[in-house]
Amino acid sequence: MAIVEVLEKKGALTDLDLQKELKGSYGEVSFREVNSNLMKLEIIGVLRVSRLMKGKRQVQLIEKN
């Protein structure tokens, strides 16, 4: 759950910034791997991915009550 850990520390990030953070902490991470994991986490309700503009998305954790 490296993605969740980064978002807990940094807050909402763009998908590209998230990938850079993951590369810095965990080594080489492809954009394809990041997207695949984002989709899985969004399906189970852990985070939300919103389109900011063409080619840029914001990733944020969903707050649990």
Low-confidence stretches: none
> In angstroms, what is the radius of gyration?
11 Å
Estimate the helix proportion, in percent. 40-55%
Question: Shape, please?
Answer: globular
Strand proportion? 15-25%
Residue-averaged pLDDT: 92
Number of helices: 3
Extended strand count: 3
The CATH topology label is Arc Repressor Mutant, subunit A
Number of domains: 1
Structural class comes to alpha+beta
Tell me the CATH architecture.
Answer: Orthogonal Bundle
Query: Which CATH C-level class is it?
Result: Mainly Alpha
Distance, first to last CA: 20 Å
The biggest beta sheet reads: 3 strands, antiparallel
Q: Considering the protein shown, what is the CATH homologous superfamily? A: Winged helix-like DNA-binding domain superfamily/Winged helix DNA-binding domain
Q: What is the string of helix and strand elements?
A: HEHHEE
What does this structure look like?
With 65 residues, the chain is α+β, with helices and mostly antiparallel strands. The protein has one domain: Orthogonal Bundle (Arc Repressor Mutant, subunit A), CATH 1.10.10.10. Helices cover 52% and strands 23% of the residues. The protein has three helices and three strands, in the order αβααββ. The model has no long low-confidence stretch (mean pLDDT 92).
